[in-house]
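User: Could you check the structure of this?
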Amino acid sequence: MEQCLIDIVPQNYIKFSIKFLIRLELTPIPCRFGIHLKFILMNAKIFALVAMFGLSLPAVILPVMPAAVAQAPEKLQGLFMDKDWGVLVSLDDGVYKYRGTNNHTSKSIELQKVKISGNNQRQVYTWQKGSTKYLVIWQPKDPDFVRLQVSENGRMLINRLLQREHGC
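Assistant: Sure, the predicted structure tokens are below.
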């Protein structure tokens, strides 16, 4: 009777062998564990080629990735809400749009002409209609929150922290 390979090969050798690209096949020969494990070593040339490619892969991929992609600044977009207010900020064809909604009355306002100020750590998006200013203040390091400030003639009407609604 053929002896089960698991019986004669130490467990740590199996793990070591599998890690280094040694193919594992299952055959229906009965043994203590119900199956017979047969190890087939790969061709030495293929093994060497795969090992060299595996070691050189990071060197091949890194120069191809542009630095701008890794550090691209995020854009403010999404639906942000609390129990009283909802603000939808969208970016369509390079134009930021604002839609603010009172969650109790369902009244809303839509604005398009935005003035963007601030810096990479704190961005301020300001829309204006008449003497009323609508500010959405966003910190990219904390992308799920914005501060909504609405003021009229310099008097603060709304100053709320809104949370992103995911899935919108």
